[in-house]
Specification:
Blueprint lengths: L2 H6 L5 H24 L5 H24 L3 H17 L4 H18 L2 H18 L5 H16 L3 H18 L8 H13 L3 H19 L4 H16 L3 H19 L7 H13 L3 H17 L5 H17 L3 H18 L5 H16 L3 H21 L9
Helix pairs in contact: 2-3, 3-4, 3-5, 4-5, 5-6, 5-7, 6-7, 7-8, 8-9, 9-10, 10-11, 11-12, 11-13, 12-13, 13-14, 13-15, 14-15, 15-16, 16-17, 17-18
Amino acid sequence: MGRIEARHTRPQNMSRVVCAKRCLVALVWFCGLLVVGTDTAGAQAGLTERAYSCGSLRSMGRVYMASGGYEKAQPFLERALHIAEGANGSDSDLYACMLDLAYLYKSQGKLDEAEKMCLSGLELQEKALHKDHPYVAYTLRILSEIYRGQGRYPEAESSLERAIGIIHGVRPDDDQQSAPLLVDMGRLLLERGRFAEAEVHFEKAVPLIEKSFGPEHLYTTKVLASMAALYVEQERFAEAQELVLRIQPIQEKIYGPDHHLLVPVWLLQARIHQSKMDLAHAKLLLDKSLRVVDNQPDSGRLTKGEVLIGLGQFHLLGKEYTQAADVLERALDILEGVFNDYHPRIADVLETLAQLRSETGDVAEASRLQQRAKDIRVRQRVDSAPVARVIE
C-alpha cells in the first residue's frame, strides 16, 4: 500500500487503537467548533479555521480507515475535500484530501472513482512539488494498487517502476524507504503468476520491513501474509503455515479475535487445511469468514467475493455441485460489479464454473464459460507486454 497504509499500521498494540478511537469524540466536538467559528471570524481567520477543520476531518477519516471502517471514514474525507475546494487554500491541501479519498475508494473496491481521484491528486501534487519528489512516489504506489485491482498490470508495474526510480534517486537501493515498494512489486508479480520473481522481492523486503517497523508490527504481518499466500500458490504449505501461526496472534491482539480484517489470514488457513484434507477445519474457517463479512458492511465487496470463491472451491472439491454453483455465481456477480469485463480474477471464477459444469455433464455451458475465460486470458496477454524492467 501507499504511504497512508504505513501511517495506519503504526499502532503496535490494542491500547493504541483504542486510544485513537477515544480521541474521535473529542475531535468531533473540536471540529464542530471550528466549522461554527468560521461564520463569525474574519476572512483570514476563517480560512485558517477551515484548513484546520479540513485536517481534523482527514485525521478522523484516517483513524476509521486504520481499523477498516471505510464507510464511517467516507463522510469525513468527503467533507474535508469539500472544505478544501471551497476554502481557496493551497494545492497541497487539495491534493492531500484527494489522495486520502483515492485510498479510501480503492479500499472499498470503487476502483474507477479511486483512479479519477488519484490522477487528479497526482496532477496537483506534481504541480505543487515536482515530478521526482518522494511524495509523488507514495502516490504512484496508490495508483499502482488501483491499476492492479483493475487487472491493468502493465500500468501497475509501470507506476511502481517509476516510484522505485524516484526513491532510488534520493536513497540507496537497500534503504528502508524502498522496502514497501519491493513488497508492492512482489504482490503484483504474485498475482501475475511470476512466483520466483515475487519471492526475490519479498526476501529483500522482509528484513528491511522488520528493521523499520519491528517484527510484531501490523504492517510486518501483512507483508508476511503476502509471503504466505505465495507459498500457498507454490504448494509450500508447511512454510505458509509457519508464517500464519506467527502473524495471526499479532493481528488478533490488534484487531480482536473476530474482526473482518482477519479474513485474509483465515482464507490462507483454510487453504492449508484443505491441502492436508482437514476439511472440517477448512469449512469452519470459511463459514466464519462468510459470517463476518456478511455482518460487517465495511469489509468490502471484494473480500466477500474472495470468501465465496474459497467456499465454491471447497464445495467443488467435495463434489457438492449445487452449493458450489450457488456461491460461485454469487462471487461472479460481485466481481463483475467491481471489475472490468477482462479482469483475470473473473477468468479464474469462470474456469472454476466451467469445471463444475463439465463435471455435472453440462458440456455446452462449460464450453461457453471456458471460451469467455479464454478470451480474458488472451486479452491479458496482449495487454501485458513488458513495459519495464524488474528490480534485480
